Amino acid sequence: MTSLLNVSNLSKSFIQHQGFFRKKEVMAFAPLSFDLERGETLAIVGESGSGKSTLAKVLTGVMKPTTGHIRIDGINHSVQQHEKRCKQIRMIFQDPNTSLNPRARIGRILEAPLSLNNSELTPEQTQQRIEDTLKKVGLLPEHEAFYPIMLSSSQKQRVALARALILDPKIIVADEVLATLDVSVRSQIINLVLQVQKERGISFIMVAHNIGIVRHISDKILVMHEGQMVEYGDTLQVLNDPQHIVTKRILLNQKIQIRK
Ligand SMILES: Nc1ncnc2c1ncn2[C@@H]1O[C@H](COP(=O)(O)OP(=O)(O)OP(=O)(O)O)[C@@H](O)[C@H]1O
């Protein structure tokens, strides 16, 4: 059976100019491959600079890969096909304070992906979709008239999730969305993600630091180190019996006991 997401030999390098004539190639991440099934969550962990954010951006098509393929339901996923791509895979960024336009009301923020993606909805259906999506993330239809500054951090992160959900994607990629939130808001957002996942069978790819959360929410884990995928597999299996020194070090740094 075809996996929902199949990533093969995906890599990304940047060309850095050093003076007029010299160029240096920086490998953000080396060729890597993995699969993700419907309704599963993959956690990407690793130390700073290991390539996690670049991988997240390449997966969502924000950046073009240097090598490799991304297939969704067996179909090649291309950066050029912006419209189709947005309906399949959407990204939520770390800080809703910078990712939400402060000058736009919430209704406009949620309407934008629909109009940018040539939605065939009538104005009434668009309005209904916005209200339904707001409700789905625990907000009220009245929040449509609010500006981001009028919302709490939890509400802003809910709007970011609503913006990702509104096109009904198969996969959502979240880059460190929990890092800036305090503990109580963090658990609210985690519960919301788990609920949305259960209801709609969406797959999540989460760049995350906190191994306690990774253990709680993810089915698979991918450990990065200096642009290499050093370990990948079932989350509990990897966390209970890590094979790579980097995984062991991450667990040790967070005082997580290895069970084997
Ligand atoms: N636009 C860019 N141009 C050149 N090099 C880049 C660019 N973006 C990232 N890199 C390099 O790619 C490597 C991986 O960076 P990336 O931001 O993906 O790591 P990360 O694991 O997400 O780090 P952090 O946890 O600190 O966000 C780093 O060496 C970084 O300097």
UniProtKB/TrEMBL annotation:
SUPFAM superfamilies, alphabetized: P-loop containing nucleoside triphosphate hydrolases
GO cellular-component term (any): plasma membrane
Stretches assigned to the ABC transporter domain: 5-251
Localization (cell): Cell inner membrane
PROSITE patterns found in the cross-reference section: ABC_TRANSPORTER_2
Main location: membrane
Protein topology in the membrane: Peripheral membrane protein
GO biological process, one term: transmembrane transport
Keyword annotations from UniProtKB, A to Z: ATP-binding, Cell inner membrane, Cell membrane, Membrane, Nucleotide-binding, Transport
A single MF term (Gene Ontology): ATP hydrolysis activity
SMART domains registered for this protein in UniProt: AAA
Family membership: Belongs to the ABC transporter superfamily.
Protein name according to UniProt: ATP-binding cassette domain-containing protein
